Amino acid sequence: MEKILKLMDESELKVGLVGNPNCKTIMLPVAKESVCGQEAENLKLWGVDPELGKHFIEGLVDKFQILYFDYEGHRLQHTNPEHLTPENIVKDLLTIADQMNVKNFSYYGYSWLALVGLQLAIRTDRLESLIMGGFPPIDGPYKEMMVVTNKTYEQALNNQHSPIIDEQNHISLEQIEWDNIQVKIDTNQTKQFVTMYENLMGFDDREIQYKLMIPRLAFAGEKDTIVYGENFGSKTVDIIGLLQKNKQELEQLGWDIEILKGNDMDHTKAMQPITVLSLIKPWLIKNLNIGH
């Protein structure tokens, strides 16, 4: 079943619900729409599954009911530059659950959508479990991401009228110099993430841990360290370093922590269904007490 739902800002989002209604529900805001042709080939160059959403749903639907949508894709198309606050994002997610008649659910998010899962967990009692991929539950790099998103926004403003490399020229990844890359995107797309991180500047992710009484898992690839060049504030966002540093403390707090091994297991590789499903599916089955 798929429906078009209205969110808090009146924008419309396609949401799907599949699987046995008697099964536990997993909310998947990461379920990107499949792409094909040249766009799919381009994604593969970056190590991205062009059917990411479809493969996540297929991988989980035999044991769970799946509430799926592409929240990131939606926000890139329907920007909310002034009001994309953690509180409003959580309201969007709960609105989606309400309109699909889903009371309780587990949540899986990756990267900034993992951060959103933590915000959801402290604002509702409807979560049954939480999985955060590619973003640490304590000592999250909020300040670093604030600098990176601010710099991205500045570049987007400055580059609105500058010539840009034609994407059809398909430059090989090896030729891209990340220090010199120029950002030319819709300023509202990046402004909304500035708004989100601005509203997290006072957030203490240690202070809220006592509120989390549900099963929860955090994971990252062992090479998940992103070094941003001068254009982006010369910041390093060391997801795996933060997770490893706090692994023992997190486990004492009740988190399950997994580090995905592999020399290529970076931020992108560690979010692909082929990698993630083998970790989260058995974890969900175990923690939601689902019979095999």
From TrEMBL:
From the Swiss-Prot or TrEMBL record, what is one GO molecular function term?
Answer: hydrolase activity
Q: Which InterPro entries match?
A: AB_hydrolase_fold
Q: Report what the protein is called.
A: Alpha/beta hydrolase
Native organism is Bacillus changyiensis
Q: Which UniProt keywords apply?
A: Hydrolase
